[in-house]
Amino acid sequence: MLSAAVLTAEQVGFRYADVPVLHDVNLSVEAGRVLALTGANGTGKSTLLHLLAGVTQPTSGRVSRRAGTRLALLPQRTSDIDALPLTVTECVQIARFTPRRWLSRDDRAHVAEVMRRLDIVHLARRRLRELSGGQRQRTLIAQALAQDADIYILDEPTAALDTHCRQRVHDLLMERVADGAAVVVASHDPAEAGLAEHAIHLGRRSAGHSSTLPPNA
């Protein structure tokens, strides 16, 4: 029987110069499941997400992704994008571009629906640098979720959002999961972590410890 895992980390470690950040992290992310990363600030959650996404390479161990899988990453720090003269619509549409074709009618409809669900349609012509923190975050979440990805990796996606907006994001995430996507989310929000069947808790010793969460915990 083939494993349902689409993304794995085996004995993964990472160091900044001579400073250990992560060591001996083991995890498996399955299709149609949510994995939460929890832990205090400074324990390596963002670093682990970048390793899983392939943005950074581990200094020990290995990260493996099933061949052919598509991955969408929402990092926590995205200030560089504000320097681009993008409108909200253009920012979200980036998610649907490919090197070989222009946006189709279906692509535009998909973008419009995600923007509607995240209540940013009225911001369509605004520049990113003109937005409030919450508006900007919803735009970047829309960009991530507008992608047809098999794995969504999200770093503190709803930290700047109110309860109503957080619920909108959670609803969209769980729809992606129901369609078979895997989600890895780093969060301090208990409700967000409660979406996951499993959690990896990163402590000050920088090793990941897996636990199973009860539904709606």
Residue-averaged pLDDT, rounded?
Answer: 89
Tell me about the largest β-sheet.
6 strands, mixed
Overall number of strands: 9
Q: Could you list the spans in which at least 5 consecutive residues all have pLDDT below 50?
A: 209-217
Query: Any idea what the CATH architecture of the largest domain is?
Result: 3-Layer(aba) Sandwich
Structural class: alpha/beta
Give a concise summary.
With 217 residues, the chain is of the alpha/beta class. 28% of the residues lie in helices and 27% in strands.
Walkthrough of the structure:
This protein is α/β, with parallel strands linked by helices and 217 residues long. The chain folds into 2 domains: 1-70 and 150-217, Rossmann fold; 81-148, no CATH class. It is built from 6 helices and 9 strands; from the N terminus they run E-E-E-H-E-E-H-H-H-E-H-E-H-E-E. Strands 5-6-7-3-8-9 form a 6-stranded mixed beta sheet, with helices on both faces. Strands 2-1-4 form a 3-stranded antiparallel beta sheet, covered by helices on one side. The longest helix is centred in the last third of the chain and has 16 residues, at 163-178. 36% of the residues are buried.
